[in-house]
């Protein structure tokens, strides 16, 4: 669906759990976000329509990448 649309962006919110320093977990989050973006691009979504927010270590301690469509907020 996203690849068929000609407008709109999505945001990837990447988090990483762990006891490492913030810089290490942020780099891990970024690698995960880039991997998800690569999959979306392989499916036909232009790379320029994907924003990545690499959060690194957060209080919730989750390992995840959320895909948010344009206009959606994260709770």
Compile the SSE list and pairings.
Blueprint: E1 10-15, H1 22-42, E2 50-56, E3 64-69
Parallel strand pairs: 1-2
Antiparallel strand pairs: 1-3
Describe the sheet with the most strands.
3 strands, mixed
Task: Please compute the radius of gyration using only Cα atoms.
Answer: 13 Å
Could you say which overall geometry the principal axes of the C-alpha atoms support? Answer: elongated
Structural class, by secondary structure, is alpha+beta
Give the amount of beta strand, in percent: 25-35%
Number of helices, where a helix is a run of at least 4 consecutive DSSP H or I residues: 1
Straight-line N-to-C gap = 24 Å
Give the low-confidence spans: none
Strand order of the largest sheet: 2-1-3
Topology as a string of helices (H) and strands (E): EHEE
The helix content, as a percent range, equals: 25-40%
What is the typical, i.e. mean, pLDDT? 85
The tally of beta strands, per DSSP, is 3
Protein model, in words:
It is a single chain. The protein has one helix and three strands; from the N terminus they run E-H-E-E. Helix content is 28%, strand content 25%. The protein has 75 residues and is α+β, with helices and mostly antiparallel strands. It has a three-stranded mixed sheet, covered by helices on one side. The model has no long low-confidence stretch (mean pLDDT 85).
Summary, kept brief:
The chain contains one helix and three strands; from the N terminus they run βαββ.
Kindly list the characteristics that best describe this protein.
3-stranded mixed β-sheet, single chain, alpha+beta, elongated, 25% strand, 3 strands, 75 residues
């Amino acid at each position: 669906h996203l690849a068929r649309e000609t407008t709109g962006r999505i945001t990837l919110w990447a988090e990483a759990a762990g006891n490492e320093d913030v810089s290490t977990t942020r780099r891990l989050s970024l690698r995960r976000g880039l991997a998800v973006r690569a999959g979306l691009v392989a499916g036909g979504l232009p790379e320029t329509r994907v924003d990545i927010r690499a959060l690194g270590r957060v209080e919730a301690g989750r390992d995840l990448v959320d895909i948010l469509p344009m206009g959606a907020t994260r709770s």
